[in-house]
Amino acid sequence: MADLTVVILTKNEEKNLRKCVESFRGVARRFVIVDSYSTDGTEALCKQLNKELGQQGSSLDFYQHKFVSHAEQFNWGLDNTSITTVWTMKMDADEELTAELATELDKKLSNLPASVNGIIVKRRVIFMGRWIKHGGRYPELLLRIFRTGKARSEMKVMDEHLVLTNGGTIVTFKNDLIDNNQKDLEWWIAKHNWYSNREALDHQLTLAHEMDETLKEHGSSSEQAQIKRIVKNDGYYRLPSFFRAHLYFLYRYYIKLGFLDGTEGRIYHFLQAYWYRFLVDAKLFECEKKHIRLKPQTDLKA
User: Fold this and answer.
1) What angle (nearest 5°) sits at the alpha carbon of residue 192, between those of residues 76 and 128?
2) What is the structure's pLDDT at 146?
């Protein structure tokens, strides 16, 4: 068993949480759930999972905290749940490890040199049961594992990343974690509508130089994440509104071969690369026309 604590943020994740926890296959010593006052069976499930994990020598601790942003929620978890393991990992409730990654964690974590403070893993997205391999979506490289106390989430409203706070080496593990949400398309659309509000607010704050730029300025994280941030703020958002969503979809679907992902891919790339980005532009247009300064969003109600 690896000396590892896994921090998972939840809000109504009864459908996803069990497969996330069970995918570790007894590798993690402790799970920390930071819940945004779920109204489904998430809390009851956590109590059951803690009983089951106790038989394996592991544990699951359930905490509740009012949601402000994913970044603040995660950092609150780091500061208030008494993590004592050597390593900490950030997971979303709808994610799971491949069996190969679970084995890799078990074999490698305890043998890494002391100079290594961060570990990048590859994420694959499953949408409507299909692996989205194209359109620039795989592999997504994310800093997700770090020596406890050596990293925090940058304080962004949207698109936040973990950043090492004390330097050190970052290595990349070979195997994947999987984003495989079990909720339906209606929920996905509601979530992205909520995301679009946060994205618009994030852009307003960025233009006003009121957003945390740790990743861009001096952060140590995934190089891919750093490049994407630069392209987004200094490239994409400099293109004309609305046209840029159209251009981004064409790039994803045709140039990056998103059409090879079949019908599920057509739905995913259109909604995620075109509809979502167009919706963000529409909300930014409304804000500019009506002189609206967006306020911080509450948690997702779906």
Assistant:
1) 105
2) 97
pLDDT tens, position by position, 116-126: 999 999 999 99
Band (225; pLDDT cuts 50, 70, 90): confident
Answer positive or negative: Cα dihedral of 221, 223, 224, 230. positive
Query: How far, in Å, CA of 300 to CA of 264, rounded?
Result: 25
Which value, to the nearest 10 degrees, does the dihedral of the CA atoms of residues 257, 122, 72, 152 take?
-130
How many whole angstroms separate alpha carbon 248 and alpha carbon 96? 29
Q: Beta strand pairing status for 59-64 and 28-35? A: parallel
* 216 pLDDT higher than 60: no
Give the list of residues 6+ apart from residue 279 with CB closer than 8 angstroms, or none: 192, 193, 196
Q: What would the DSSP string read from start to end of 175-196? A: EEEEE---S-HHHHHHHHHHHH
Instruction: Extract the runs of DSSP E, i.e. beta strands, from the chain.
Output: 2-10, 28-35, 59-64, 87-92, 95-97, 116-127, 130-131, 140-147, 151-153, 162-164, 169-179
Domains of the chain by start residue, with CATH: 1-91 (3.90.550.10), 185-290 (no CATH)
Q: Is 15 left (phi over 0), alpha (psi -120 to 50) or beta?
A: alpha
* 159-to-115, 242, 251, 261, 289 alpha-carbon distances in Å: 28, 20, 21, 24, 25
Report, as an integer, the average pLDDT of 278-286: 98
Q: Which residue has the higher pLDDT, 296 or 129?
A: 129
Cβ atoms within 10 Å, residue 83: 19
C-beta atoms surrounding 97 within 10 Å = 25
